[in-house]
Design a protein that fits this description.
By secondary structure, the chain is α/β, with parallel strands linked by helices. It is built from 13 helices and 13 strands. The N and C termini lie close together (10 Å).
Amino acid sequence: MSFELVACLSLLDALAYNYLMPIAENPMVEHLWIVRPKKNEYGEIPKASYYLAPSKNRLVRFIKMLKNCILLGNRNKVKAFISFNPIPYGLIAMIAARIFGKPIHFGFIGSDWYHYVKGTLGKFLIPILRQADFFTVTGQKMREEMLKYGFEPQKITILPHSINLSHFQIFDSDEKKYTFIFVGQLIRRKRVDLILEGFSKVLLDHPNVTLCIVGDGPLLNNLKNQAKDLGISRAIKFTGYTIGVHSFLKQARIVVMASNMEGFPFALVEAMCTGLVPISTPVGTIPDFIINEQNGLLVQQNDSDALARAMSRMHQDKKLYEKLRQNVLKTRSYFSYNHAKNVWERWFNSFK
């Protein structure tokens, strides 16, 4: 059996690529039609064609995407719709799916669940979202929360974050350019300001440590000014936006995340698969994969002192660092595309 799929989404760069590749590589998928505002994956998706709606006007963009979903849904070979970012893109795809009586998937990746569904709009959105045919989530905690909201358990599957491991080779070296690294969007919920505060405290006792901030966003200039005000600019590199994340990861020892809200960030997966040891806040489904004192350190949210203590400890306690790193490396294979492919194959086999 072979068929076509329609994917409706608006993920950035590596997110889109890593979510779509395990789908496109399935031999049952003859073609993947991708409906999104603009093409910005950092790699080519096999067997894929794009229907883009790049308008800056949100309403116009949504209408164009809906028209494209309806156009593609009318194809006999299209068996189902797949969506990440269920709000709004999953809801757009759901209209087309229901018009043609085809199944619809919603993939929750973090902020969409914690911000929208658990937010003030949740009571209106949940009855609609529950009508989808298949849900993927980032971890067990999110799955348990969905069950409390009345989602059917047989419809919910944990979709492992997966990456092309060949792109993130382990780089063993005692000489690393950066002690710590952050990778992600420079937006408020990532709390990079706390990382800078914590790092400034670490520098007082360890003047040779360094920090690399990989990413771009609306807070970039604010963070640069904060680093200047803290007197730590000399020890920090801001890279801005870059596709070549691995070139920075392989130069670092420890990845640091201080987010207030997440699912399970791909940046952590990429860092861990490169051999970095994580320090993170225990938000979203991160504790499903990072076990405190076993393969990383978890610290309290909104606490730069706790973050600084964890960073200092990880830097100076070589025995702890090596123990955690060895356990990190043991989890590496879990994040290969094979695990994600198995999830999709089970759903594809349910198609009539």
